[in-house]
Amino acid sequence: MKLSAWTISLLAVAACLQSGAASAQEANAGNDGVDDIIVTATKRADGQTLQKTALAISALGAAQIESKQIRDLAGIGNSIPNVSFDSGGTFKGTANFSIRGLGVNSSIPSLEPSVGVFVDGVYQGINAGILFDTFDLEKIEILRGPQGLLFGRNVTGGAVLVSTKRPTRDFSMSMRAGIETGSNVTVAGSVSGPIAGDKLLGKLAVYYNDDGGWFTNSFNNQKYGGSRTFIIRPAVEFEPAEGLDLLLRFEHGDQKGDGAAAQNFALYSRHSFKFSNDTPAYSRSNWNQGTAEMNLDVGFGSGRITNVFGWRQFEQAARVDTDASPQPLSDSYTFTKQEQFSNELRYAGSFADIVDVTTGLFYFKQNLDYQDARRANNAPTAVYSGGIQDSHSWAWFSSADFHVADGLTLNTGLRYSRERKKVRIASQDTPTATGTGVTSVDIIPAGACNIVARQCVFDFRDSKSWSSWTPKVGFEWTVAPSNLFYAFWTKGVRSGGYNVRNSFQSVAPGPFEPENVSNFEMGNKLQLLDKRLTFNNAIYYQKVKGLQRSVIIANGVNGSTAAFIRNTADATIWGVESELRFNPTPELSLNASVGYTHGEYDKMFFDLTGDGVIDARDLALALPRLSPWTVSAGFSYTHPVGDLGDVTLAADYSYRDRSFYNDSNTGALNIMHMVNGSISVQSDDKRWTASLYGKNLLNKVQFGGVTPIRGLPGATLAPLEKGRVIGIDVKFQY
Fold it and tell me: What is the residue range of the signal peptide feature (predicted)?
């Protein structure tokens, strides 16, 4: 009944505004108002404007990314309703993204994401390595809700589309230098332009960051949280003939620094930045990735054939103080190596203004090698485990939008996917291999794997295949040029798989089955007052079958605990979200958003409370990483000041409700009150920009996760995020 009330309210408001929108458009025809960002969410040949895309989608262009001082993907989520983009905390660069209550609360790389990240059209196969510094971006698109039709598996919560800048036809260059609290220094630059006329274009972008560390470790009173990051990104675009375009991109990155600043609630207040870690934790990552994109315009349906090939190789080694204390109680070492190949071939075209078609084939291959070591009580030996997983998947998809009447379009589509995974897993209690030849390492290896020699004794081998259909059917109704209604039903699938961090042979590492989401959604996109007022709304109702969770249970053999992944429950999630943008004058821009999400379990297949029975207590638990309310508001005001140029003042506030990090609801994340602000000066010729900015000005404590651990009452492993940051940034562009 609550959902019905929201539905009626939304339709009533939109209906009251219909006639006003139509008359406003007639009175102000020809005035563009606020520029629309062209998005790629529908994979149409020439993209589609944000306001004409029948999806709950938010987007930021290059200017917005720079003005908001966004340095990684986690920085974009605060201003978007029902979105939570957090870091994994324990491993630098690991994403724990959640949209509409569907997310991941684990760093196990074989647990697939529910929010997929796509960089230049290429799906990123694991959450690790997603949150490293972003720069040289053209736009970021955030799609809320299942996107299975066009983007495939592991987008049950939504998708994040990141587009880097293409080479330019005219010569251009930019340089940026900045410094932040903690002696965090950033230098970046790019040069772009023609190499051989208009036929061959090139670009080179370089980024370097030296973070001296924002935190102070109470164990030795030294600075902590430092890192160094280097990224280089060349690109070449070749147009050998009219209508044919080839774009090659490459990126190399390297990051080295401290590990997680892990707080223990048994020792320090969760509202402080104090922590004491005796373990010299670290995080080291490097990656290489490349894409090759071809676009060929064809006469058939005035369409375009696009092929996107992607390759990525990623490695990470990390050490974590897992007891989060000044005592040598426990620590962990991990090594992750991933390599992926993917290719998507698609056609998009339009036939006689009757139907728009997008159809294609997709292939993905991934190899994942993971090893984990755990040491307790400063023992000379550690228990090792790990696994190797090979994945292959392919898909066929097709969507057709039929223009059945003036302003009315029927949306249809279907995707078929098939995936196979093959694993070899070494549990922690597997006997040690002999003859490894390792004599000098950080700690002496014991157990199933040798993390130095990259050798394991496997106790579990298996393979399994899954197939799925993800349909979509709906309609969109353009009541007036700037008033769009839409409604649709669709499905999404999150891949099944195995747990490569298995504790005991007696606990099977899988397979766990796919997670399935059925989503009904309707919305309205409205612009008034010569497009100076934009008001977008959406409501949704989701049924989730087979929720995938990483849970901790007692092991019946030796009385210890084991982490494993299972399908634990079915659930219902519904909610509403609104976004408002208003430009009362050309100098002043106001924005606000609000989102509400309600989730509850329908059926329970697992004892999440750990009391030995599945009962009403389990069903009453809150879904992890689901914040009922998200709210944001902000403004930007630009004013010319004589010969100084344009001065811009900007500030924003965001609120995120309390949520639980784990399924048993024993670890809770803090309520978020985030205030950011900046003042910028841009020269008259638009070449120079200097900014003074602040992030988290209220100095509120946030965590990447809150995991209860053994030891003192209330003990936790809670990786801290940075507090108040003040920075200065200078940019030159030509």
Answer: 1-24
